[in-house]
Specification:
CATH architecture of chain B: Orthogonal Bundle
Number of helices of chain B: 3
Largest sheet of chain A: none
Number of strands of chain B: 0
Structural class of chain A: mainly alpha
Number of strands of chain A: 0
Shape of chain A: globular
CATH superfamily of the domain at 1-81 in chain A: NADH-ubiquinone/plastoquinone oxidoreductase chain 6, subunit NuoJ
Largest interface: A-B, 96 and 73 residues
CATH class of the domain at 1-81 in chain A: Mainly Alpha
Radius of gyration of chain A: 26 Å
CATH architecture of the domain at 1-81 in chain A: Up-down Bundle
Structural class of chain B: mainly alpha
Oligomer: heterodimer
Largest sheet of chain B: none
CATH topology of chain B: Helix Hairpins
Helix content of chain B: over 70%
Distance between the termini of chain A: 71 Å
Shape of chain B: elongated
Chain lengths: 206, 100
Amino acid sequence: MPLDNVVFWVFAPLSVATAIGMIVVRNAVHAALFLVVNFFTIAVMYLLLDAPFLFAVQIVVYAGAIMVLFLFVIMLLGVDRGDAPGERLLGQRTTAVILAVAIVAELATAIRAGIGFTTRAPGGFDAVNPGGNPSALADVLFRDYFFPFEVTSILLIVAAVAAMVLALRRSKSLSQREIETHAGDDLEAYGLAAPGAPGTVGEPSR
Amino acid sequence: MIRLPLVLMFSALLFSAGVYGVLARRNAVMVLMAIELMLNAVNVNLVAFSSSLHQMSGQVFALFIIAVAAAEVGIGLAIVILLFRTRESINVDEVNLLKW
């Protein structure tokens, strides 16, 4: 058995197991840690599939940046915030399991009809990556896909600005909790009380 | 060299795990994580075909998907935080403002 097959059969079950663990476990932090392991195993898959540059990008972007973002939001919103018990839709979990299994069966049928289960992948590293992987990737990216590359940069800028605008919109509109907790008793804090009413001038609003 | 159908089946399993996560989990952050799982499965597929067909385009598309996934996570988590501020909950079952 060649070495890359050994690596595949070690890391593919690990990857599927961590994926299933991620969607089954209740605690959000545990799920995030499962997802980190899953990202690393997928990075190993890229290495096996002759894409060492994507291996590095996967670790830096996914396991680094995106997971930090996820963990940051989980910590911000409260660690113990798992799924609420009970189901609103009747049989939602069962239906989801049936649909997931159906997708696996459908894709297996499609793979069998498309390329067959016995196809042996041809070629080697040098056939895919003439002159090294990053150089070959850059050659295609900046020659054939230059316009989509620029559009992606615009997309990233728009996404960053939009995330900031969404997260910072605090001062204008009151949140639901503020409306409920301050209902009636604290209107002058927002300048809604009549002028001259006692306690409006000079008192710091809570 | 790994046989292509093996890799495709592997990514099909990952994708269906992501589908289950999106359909069954109620925590909005968990739904976003399951979406990441599905995007990764698609990336594995693209890189596998790139390796098998000797085409570099698959890896370029995988790179684009990684960039778009980063943007999607940024926006998605900002929406989750906004949701938590206004509704005190990130349960997606309770977000039914646009529901008919």
